[in-house]
Specification:
Oligomer: single chain
CATH class of the largest domain: Alpha Beta
Helix content: 25-40%
Shape: globular
CATH topology of the largest domain: TIM Barrel
Number of strands: 13
Strand content: 15-25%
Order of helices and strands: EEEEHEHEHEHEHEHHEHHHEEHE
Radius of gyration: 20 Å
Low-confidence stretches: none
Structural class: alpha/beta
Number of helices: 11
Distance between the termini: 48 Å
């Protein structure tokens, strides 16, 4: 497969997403989860994993990218276009991880999977010495094959296996998603997830990323639409969140945000700087709150501009406001430079066009009854 054959959005092998700089030089996945983000990149029909370049070329492109900062920028591996532990993809996953590690980098590396892992995987991951690897096991408990053909029980068993070693250099997270009212939110579903969380180093819960392309796929295939509207953010209705929190005991390390959980399991403050949005933190372990509090520093407008000065696409950046919660900016055409600013500063950076409403936790307004503040 050649880059020029791909839809325009899919050609960007290195792309910034909120939880990290995403490397996707292997594209194509046969697992066919109906809600997959591949729909939004025009990659849904690419079911066989194919390499767009060698692993060495891909790592080189990543570390030379204008957004990459050694030992700072969080990295996501194959989280947009394939499953990292498919038999054909697994060798590429390890090649990238080992190349990054050989460079003595200490960046976070997030690997999101729902596939079957084995003892060989654990042993090989344990040989990594520098990068901070986190395995996020996508688990939903959805038992409808038209929505999720590859069963969640596989991810559950992989999580248990990979979490079992007492001494390990990687960390494990139960990535409980997507939670959808009426589909996988019964008391039994919640209890199953709670039980499974006991095996993981931490748990993150989140909702459905329901974009127009995904809604169109649902309609075309006769799958009942979970919501009447689509949204640019993930949907977690207020009542669903309340039931999740009620189902989990205080002893479980439960988080609303991926970066919070990833940072926690490595004993570090949140690299996305969520601490200023205090209603996000009301479920965090006290030890993590203290770490994040100590690291929390509100930047000045001059500092925001200084960090942005290395990016040509941030030439029109304006700092609209800075509070304890976030820096609000305008003048950025896309999300990617905003993520660069956020990770460089360790502080929330919001776009004026897309305000974060109080208690929504950066999610869609769908399913919330209170009028946004």
């Amino acid at each position: 497969m050649h880059l020029n054959q791909l839809p325009e959005r899919a050609r960007e092998v290195v792309e910034y997403r909120k939880s990290g700089l995403s490397l996707n030089h292997i594209q194509g996945c046969p697992l066919d989860c109906a809600y997959c983000v591949r729909h939004t990149y025009g990659l849904w029909d690419q079911r066989q994993p194919r390499a767009l370049m060698t692993d060495a070329q891909a790592v080189d492109e990543l570390v030379k990218h204008r957004y990459f900062r050694p030992n700072v920028t969080p990295i996501q591996l194959f989280n947009r276009a394939t499953e990292p532990f498919l038999p054909k993809v697994r060798p590429h996953t390890f090649a990238v991880l080992e190349e990054l590690d050989a460079r003595d980098l200490t960046n976070h590396v997030l690997v999101i999977t729902r596939h079957q892992l084995n003892q060989y995987d654990a042993d090989r991951l344990n040989q990594l010495r520098h990068i901070k690897v986190t395995l996020l096991f996508t688990y939903s408990g959805i038992d409808r094959p038209e929505i999720e053909p590859y069963p969640s029980k596989v991810a559950a068993e992989s999580l248990k296996l990979m979490s079992a070693p007492r001494l390990r250099n990687y960390r494990t997270i139960l990535y409980w998603r997507p939670l959808v009212p009426g589909l996988n939110d019964t008391d039994e579903h919640l209890a199953d997830a709670r039980d499974l969380s006991e095996y993981a180093d931490a748990t993150v819960f989140t909702g459905l990323f329901y974009r127009d392309q995904i809604a169109q796929y649902y309609r075309s295939n006769g799958i009942p639409e979970p919501y009447a509207l689509t949204a640019r953010r993930k949907i977690v209705p207020e009542a669903l969140e309340a039931r999740v929190l009620a189902a989990f005991p205080n002893t479980v390390a439960l988080f609303r945000k991926t970066s919070c959980a990833v940072s926690y399991v490595h004993g570090l403050p949140d690299y996305n700087g969520h601490y200023g949005i205090r209603e996000l933190c009301d479920i965090c372990p006290l030890s993590q709150l203290e770490l994040c509090r100590a690291a929390h520093r509100v930047p000045t407008a001059v500092e925001v501009h200084d960090v942005a000065s290395v990016l040509p696409e941030a030439a029109d950046l304006k700092v609209v406001d800075i509070t304890e919660r976030a820096a609000v900016v305008s003048g950025l055409e896309t999300e990617q430079p905003r993520y660069f600013l956020q990770h460089s500063l360790g502080f929330q950076v919001h776009d004026e066009r897309h305000p974060h409403h109080e208690k929504r936790h950066g999610r869609a307004d769908i399913g919330w009854t209170e009028k946004p503040a």
